[in-house]
Write a structure and sequence with these properties.
Blueprint lengths: L12 E8 L5 E9 L3 E7 L4 E7 L7 E6 L11 H13 L3 E5 L28 H13 L6 E5 L2 H10 L3 H11 L5 E3 L2 E9 L6 E8 L13 H8 L5 E4 L5 E5 L2 E4 L5 E4 L2 E5 L12 H4 L10 E7 L5 E7 L2
Parallel strand pairs: 4-9, 5-6, 6-7, 7-8, 10-11, 11-15
Antiparallel strand pairs: 1-2, 2-3, 3-4, 5-16, 9-10, 12-15, 13-14, 16-17
Length: 320
């Protein structure tokens, strides 16, 4: 049975410090403490790599992460109640949140041909549309900003960068950090390294590669992209992608051998993180006319456990 902190004894806090990189730039560093038993340290090693250091006391200890993509928080079709439920559940599980693109929709700008009067939330009606979206997004996530560790760009964010010369997530993460948040702004693709360590024991690591997404398919639902991602990132134990709003967990085991000749089958998982944007309700609309198919709403729970023989045990389940 996995060890957990006793209910009612969790006292989460975040302490922002700084760490100098080799080039002299100051990179943010985070320590999150739950009670007096668990300390998670988040270090931005490079623009591409975020390292999460997790101390453990036994090989039964686990760490929980909520994997999210394609939230589209500013769209009226975003299921905010469901998202709130999952974020509250993540806190209750003493977990942390990783977001992989399209946190915002951002299609109601003045010159955006995709815009429509029925697709803008009342909070965002104003001449400073982008400012209103950024501020309201940061305010929405504020109750959980101490457990949200990163947000990567998606195609909706990069479209605004390319067409409006505004960086959406840089603005949102800046606002969240100004009020005590610990979030890192990552790119369209990158790495998260999970490092489990304890005194007098070797560190157990696993690597997560994320890419907002490039491949879909109405019939195949994007699962064929898993093999492509693992060929792009052969060092990955977990691949997370989004973009197509599909949710799936597909195993891609591989055959490995160490320097001493010991061989084994290593588990690897391709995770498509789903969406919170419900586009298929009603009698018409873009998704219905294009026969895009109903999508699975929610995210994915990632549970990691350091193994006695080395490495990290990985398991994933969809949120409900």
């Amino acid at each position: 049975m996995s060890s957990q902190l006793p209910a009612g004894r969790v006292n989460c806090r975040s302490e922002l410090a700084t760490k100098k990189s080799g080039g002299g730039a100051r990179l943010p560093r985070l320590r999150i403490t739950a009670g007096h038993l668990v300390t998670l340290t988040s270090i931005r090693r490079t623009p591409e790599l975020l390292e999460l250091r997790i101390p453990y006391g036994s090989f039964q200890d686990t760490a929980t992460f909520l994997l999210l993509s394609d939230i589209h928080i500013d769209n009226p079709k975003c299921e905010r109640k469901l998202l709130t439920k999952h974020l509250d559940e993540c806190r209750a599980r003493k977990g942390h949140v990783l977001m992989f693109g399209d946190v915002m929709c951002l299609m109601q700008g003045k010159k955006d041909r995709r815009g429509g009067k029925g697709d803008v939330r009342i909070e965002h009606l104003g001449g400073n549309y982008f400012d209103l979206v950024f501020g309201e997004t940061a305010e929405f996530f504020k109750p959980w900003q101490d457990i949200i560790l990163m947000a990567g760009d998606g195609n909706h964010e990069t479209a605004v960068i390319n067409n409006q010369e505004i960086d959406p997530l840089e603005n949102v993460t800046r606002l969240m950090r100004s009020t005590g948040g610990c979030i890192e702004h990552m790119g369209y693709q990158g790495w998260v390294r999970f490092s489990f360590s304890r005194d007098n024991s070797k560190t157990r690591r696993c690597m997560l590669f994320f890419h907002h997404g490039a491949w879909g398919g109405i019939v195949t639902k994007g699962v064929m992209g898993g093999g492509r991602y693992f060929s792009i990132a052969p060092d990955a134990d977990i691949v997370c992608s989004g973009h197509n709003h599909e949710r799936s967990i597909v195993s891609h085991p591989c055959y490995r051998v160490d320097s001493g000749g010991r061989s084994w089958i290593e588990q690897r998982l391709h995770v498509q993180c789903g969406t919170y944007k419900e586009e298929f309700k009603g009698t018409g609309g873009w998704a219905i006319e294009r026969i895009v198919m109903p999508k699975s709403l929610g995210g994915v729970w990632l549970t990691l456990r350091p193994r006695h023989r080395g490495g990290v045990e990985i398991s994933c389940t969809p949120t409900t």
